[in-house]
Amino acid sequence: MKLFSKKNKLRLAEGNLLVIVIILMVILSFATKNFFTVNNLRNLVRQTSVNGIIALGMTFVIISGGIDLSVGSIVGVASIVIAKLLVGGMPIFPAIIIALVVCGALGAVNGFIIQYGKVPPFIATLGMMQAARGIVMLLSNARMIAGLPKAFTGFAQLVFAGFPSLFFVWFLVIIVTFILTTKTIFGRNIFAYGSNIEAARLSGINTAAVTLSVYTLSGILSGLAGILMTSRLGNGIPTAGQGYEMDAIASAVVGGASLSGGSGTIIGTVLGALLISLIQNGGNLLGINAFILQIIVGVLIVASVWYDQIRKTTKS
Amino acid sequence: MKKLGKKVLCVMLLVTIVATGLFAQGTTETAGGPKGEKPYEIAVIIKATDSDFWQYLLVGALNYEFEHPDLVNVTTYGPPSESDIDQQVAILENVISTNPDAIVIASTSSDASVPALEQAYDKGIKIITVDNKVNTPKVNSFLATDNTLGGSLGAEKMVEYLKANNISTAGKKIAVVSAMAGVQVLTDRDNGFISRIKQLIPGIELIPTRYVDNDIIKALSTTEDLITTYGSDLIGIFADNNHSADGVSRAVAEQSLSNKIIVTAYDSDPEEVAAIKSGAIKAIMVQDPYGMGYKGVDSAVQAIEGATLPEYVDTGVVIVEKSNVNDPAAQGILDPFTMKKY
After folding, report:
1. pLDDT tens, A129-184?
2. Where do the domains of chain A lie, and which CATH numbers do they carry?
3. S-S: A240 plus which of A11, A79, A305, B111, CB 3.0-4.6 Å?
4. Which residues of B fall below an 8 Å CB-CB distance to A?
5. Angle at A285 between CA A284 and CA A288, to 5 degrees
6. Chain A residues lying within 8 Å of B250, measured CB to CB
7. What is the ipTM of this complex?
8. pLDDT tens readout for residues B106-118
9. Inter-chain residue contact B225 with A289, CB threshold 8 Å
10. How many angstroms separate the CA atoms of B287 and B153, rounded?
């Protein structure tokens, strides 16, 4: 009986994904002489961390039965806001806090519109995607912002104990979000809300709080990703994050999150993000045609959901 | 309450429909063609408002207006991003219905804008295309950079710096990191580079071109992967626009390979200029978008006044490297905002 509980099913999905990731890594280690090197593995985690962080925020939204298309534009907002503040002479720490607050507020606006305006999440965040990008262009005059302090741009280059600093930030976010989803009432409420809104409401869950917090969280994490990216690139970039919503959604979905809500895990999303980076990285190392890689990623997204559906129907 | 809402909606809808009808009527009534009186109405349409390059073009066009206030009245338009081809066509159609004397357009697509442009040309509106060639003879002039030539200059500079750094080319490899597949100007640059580099270093192996969706992070990751894969065999990278160059130069600088991997690139932005100064990029081929805007409006004026214009005008590229990056002439090319007069 317990084997068929929802939790166990999800663990199974993660297990499968982990096996795929490991197999791919083993194949790449043999197929290329450079895959299994410290340098490349370091590159791999660094390349994954920006999308990895956004995808974790997206996972909360998807578990709650929603979607957030505005994450890419919010990455851009973070990049321009922090660059403007730092170039304006503000110390690093308060500048980071302000950028995160701005991004969190944009996320909260998403949540507010969805909760109180009863606007479907797809539409509300589609609007935010446009509006936030407009804010970015307005603030920056569509121009790159240069002249960031070395102390800020140096952070993304740091390596601690053999791991790049971006990985540590990502890892920290993984731990926090993992605890949030598995060990807290807030986490349980999101799953309940995503599975059945009416039932959640009747059982006394504050649905407004759930909606507002998942979108705010998604905004804050996108902002964090944007700040890290700005540190990495050394400039505030108005086009930063364009199209990133697709990678984030793909990571969560490949990781077993269901767009109908109620299911998804942090570990699954982490593995999903890793798998997508791995295909890109491996493809580059093997010298596979870029267009073929794109086809592979597309097929992977559909195949993983299809497989999930088959597994679900045969179980029940 | 609900019923009332519905009624209000119905009325609003009706008003909108009627208003659209009236407005449409209005435009057909004035559809006689351009007036041809001073100041000439000139519409400038760019590919995208989200990039420095197109903003520079507007500076050129608006400076011309500032210098000749009695001669021209410049209005500028553009979709938010270069992928919005259909939106640019819609803008073009709207502009044509206002009957300007001339249109200066950087058309994103070589084909999508053809029907509208032909219709405008037949109405007597002068058409000056800039940057991207449009597949119709019904234009008055075409001003652009010779991108194939620019790409080949990138190859020549790369060879020059390979020699200066004593890098042997025997059995080594060179990569091209392109911003996007299927864009004519980028393809021209890449092909110009590739064919020239093959002439200059006959035995060189070119790694298949990598495409990075005009995303700096992707350009950075791709370059890291190239460096990982080919190691010391990789001696040169050509990046065909500013975003691809930003990512490439950052990867090269992060691994302190500036003098082992020679990077030459196209376009300019603050990050590329910083990379020129640090040595991560050796030379950039900078186009003159300011000149395209300024000369574009000037050509439009000449066309309106009946002059016959050359079919094609090369607006040229300027090579910027460490030795000339601080010259005032290069400054104007690198940051046309310094020339802004209005």
Report:
1. 999 999 999 999 888 888 899 899 889 888 888 888 999 999 999 999 999 999 99
2. 49-315 (1.10.3470)
3. A79
4. 49-52, 55, 80-81, 181, 207-211, 213-217, 220-222, 224-226, 228-229, 231, 243, 246, 250, 254, 269-271, 274
5. 50
6. 232-234
7. 0.71
8. 998 888 889 899 9
9. no
10. 12
Look up the pTM and report it: 0.75
Helix (H) or strand (E) holding B174, with range, is strand B173-178
CATH 3.40.50.300 fits B40-145+289-315, yes or no: no
CATH number, domain B147-287 = 3.40.50.2300
Give me the phi and psi of B318, to 5 degrees please: -115, 130
CB B46 within 8 A of CB B77: yes
For tokens 């166990």, name the residue. A8
Q: What is the distance, to the nearest Å, from the Cα of residue B11 to the centroid of all Cα atoms in its chain?
A: 45
**What is the C-alpha separation between A266 and A175, in angstroms, rounded?**
9
Contact B243 A234 (CB under 8 A): no
Q: Which string of b and e fits A304-313 if b means at least 16 CB within 10 Å? A: bbeebeeeee
> What residue ranges do the domains of chain B occupy?
40-145+289-315, 147-287
Contact A146/B208, CB-based, under 8 Å?
no
* Cα B32 to Cα B30: distance, rounded to the nearest angstrom: 5
- CB contacts of A235 in chain B (<8 Å) are 246, 270-271
Residue B100 and residue B75 in contact, taking contact as beta carbons nearer than 8 Å = yes
- Residue A190, helix vs strand vs coil: helix
Q: Can you tell me the distance from the alpha carbon of B20 to that of B16, in angstroms, rounded to the nearest whole number? A: 6
**Who among B52, B181, B254 is closest to A144 (CB)?**
B52
